[in-house]
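Sanity check

After download, print the first record. It should look like this:
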Amino acid sequence: MCEEHDFIRNMIISLAVIAAFSLFTDANGQSEKTTIVITQDDGDTIKSILEAFKKHQNRVRFRSDIQSYLDCEAHRKLLEFGWKAVPYLIEQVALLEDIDGYIGSALIKYPNIKTLEEVFEYNLNRKAKAKNTLIFFSLEILLEELVSRRTLDKNSYQYDGIFTWLDWWQQHKHKFIFQTKQPIVIHSAKYFHSTTPQIRTTTKNGLLDIYAISATYRQIIERAAAEMNVDIFIGEQRYIDVITRVRMKKVTFEEFLYIIGRQAYVKGFDYRKTEKGYWIGGKEPAEPRPILHGWGIMMEKTVFSVGDEIPVTIIARLPGPIIDPNDSVFPCYGSFRVTTNDGKIIKDYNPVTKPKATTPPIRMVKDGHHIQVLLNKFCKLTEGEYNIRFRYLDNETPSVAIELYDRKVK
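Expected structure tokens:
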């Protein structure tokens, strides 16, 4: 019996050692401490494989399934090179960051580029430099496969998450020895990147910098107008409530409107100047739209001055229980979480402190039921940019970005 126990114990120890070693080793047996030597032949072959990979992606560029962009011989050959291929992929990530976002005429060094059309065309030509890089999500997946020993969920990639590889390179570049004519030089990340839904805006000398992720076009336009103190009316307009990502630097408000509209679709948003600002879209006000994912939040606007009431409509996207928000037990079962863009919690969900024995007066509601709530009743907010989520029982909404500003300052 003792011998059997010793055998089992030794087997467990052996498996633990193997498992521990695998945590520090990639799919090609390369350790975190390994020095990676890249010869000229390695570099030439990897570049050739990447060119073949890009040609494959061009052939399938109209397909909607991600796997189509990866299912090719070039993908399989690239994985055989292991970490040797990593710097060549991160080099493409650096190029994508260089051309990330749109720039206004103030940053264009050619004085003959002045009109809205010329500024937009210039930006398109800048972005055309990425024609020789792999599609961003495939770069993310490849780097995860090569370095992390796991395949990224190909349906849950985050665009801005790819730029973290620029910082990874700065921490690991000492491991790579280039025996090539031209060693790869990769810069650190130049801009702020995040995968958290948010909208960031700044202005200087009448020019706008804006960075938004997982926000609707309507929310982005509202935020830009508030930042630049421009009066706007948003009427009915196609794509106005589509969720998007955008980065612009040193743009006028009209350059911003022109570019963001054409990012949405080829004709751009309809807009015209008014005495005080801009009229965007049709004659009738655009209806508020929820973010449709599980439960959702619907707001007629997302920019407020300090002291305004902040009405929020919670939409039940699936049949389920709901109670009257005016009921005394509602705060126990439904509340907001408010965070800043860096994730700091300003107001967390109310803890459920009442015993479950006192079941709230629940009634079943249909899909699409609306609950009207004032955010002000849950917390008081000062000037700033926030992300809000709502939770009721086990149902939680996605985040929505809002801004409060001091009307006296604006």
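If your output differs, re-run the checksum step. Summary of this record's structure: The mean pLDDT is 82.
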